[in-house]
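Notebook, p. 212. Picked up where the previous page left off. The plan for this session was modest: take the two constructs that came back from the sequencing core last week, fold each one, and keep the raw output in the notebook itself so nobody has to go hunting through shared drives later. Recording the first one now, exactly as returned: residue sequence, then the structure token string.
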Amino acid sequence: MINEEELKDAIILVFANKQDLPNAMSAAEVTEKLHLNTIRERNWFIQSTCATRGDGLYEGFDWLTTHLNNAK
């Protein structure tokens, strides 16, 4: 999906959710599984979250807002 021409300039934010669960993959594990480290031509960020508590959501959206504003 990220290789689609329409998304070539897209900024990527990944939420590693469910961090409140003991068997949840860490942000580093999600990065590895999704091969995010191979993405060199665009900005990407992974944020650990627990959506039920709201942990990490604002931080992720703050990063996205900052990078979208800088891209203008």
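Okay, moving on. Second construct, recorded in the same format:
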Amino acid sequence: MSTVVFRNKTGGSETLYAAPGQNLLDVLRLHGIPANAVLAYRNGAVIPESAVVVEPDDVIEVRQVRHYDLDVLRKPKEHVYAAPDPVYSKSVLFDHGGTLERRTEQLTAETFVQYVEETFVQSITSGGTMRAGDRAVIGLSGGRDSVAYLKLLERTRGRWPEIDMTAVTITGLPDWDEPATFQIALDSCAGLGLEHTIVTADDVADVFKLREPFVDVMNKVVAGEHRNMNMVIGHQVLRRMLEREAGRADASVVAFGFNADDLVASMVTWFTTGYRMGGIPVRELGDLRYVFPLYRITKKELTLYLELVAPELSRQGAPGRFTTGSDERSMAYAMADHLYDLWPGIDYYLFNAFENVQRSLLPVVDDLCRVCEGRYLLMEGVPNPAGLCDVCGFLHRQEALRADAV
């Protein structure tokens, strides 16, 4: 029989379940022990966790190298508020002067819907994402986030300030035009009676001064060595087309359906690159105000919410080649998801901390792209071509722009 013993820095020891044939690193992960926190020994000799397979009759000792209580994460103090037939558990980690406590509330289908809607309404109030008299355009892809946003607006109407809203759906790529997703975008406007505008591929080509159809440009991008620019370009196109429609509608607010873990993932990227990022849940650039009304609700919560209140609006098509991001993006989202597991409610801590950090940063400096006419932030410590955003600069280098573009 194999034996793996974990000796922690608080004087305790614990036998870890391990079966012959298991990788030792997998054993550690299964028991919530980071490899960076320990040294492993077999027969008195140090062994690398990732390269060792547990053998029959092995006796392996795993010793923690730093003095701290790893059980704060492995076996947290937790208070659970139970409910019959729960569909979801909401956990938040509370810090009482350095003493941690995890509180978990089990939610039934009914109380979960109430929780999401109450969180949405309170977020509007505390975050200032909707103000009486605002005129806003809302990006409506037909994906779950934007559809859930409209459904939340519909079901909580009367509890948020009345504003003038126009929904905008941008087309031009097969992923964006996928019939099921596109139909859901149309259907989701009905409950609110929203004006709905459709932006076409020709509109995109006109704004970005493309020399050929948008889909042809993007096909070359995803098929080439710069495929990681796929979603960077897509997001800039979506943003610029929403800004253009805001100008046409005399709107000063652009609302995006970014959820809590979208924004936590963007903070992971911000922290690991050092590039400047605007505020959360509101940022201002030029004469526009960008808002993220879903910033307190996670993707998982939005998905479950739609399944419970409007399952017919939760049947989007599968993601395609134009909505598949880079490895870096996947890493950021995976990190965000793991952070939520390790530190429930971390978004509350991060967003408040980020607000404090913003106060100490140098004032932002922006410029106007001479191609797409979008405003962009100049980044410290890297070259910033005058009057040319990253996306239009890239498209220019790929000879995708018209001769008169630059």
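Notes on construct two before I forget. The chain has 14 helices and 16 strands.
Flagging for discussion at group meeting.
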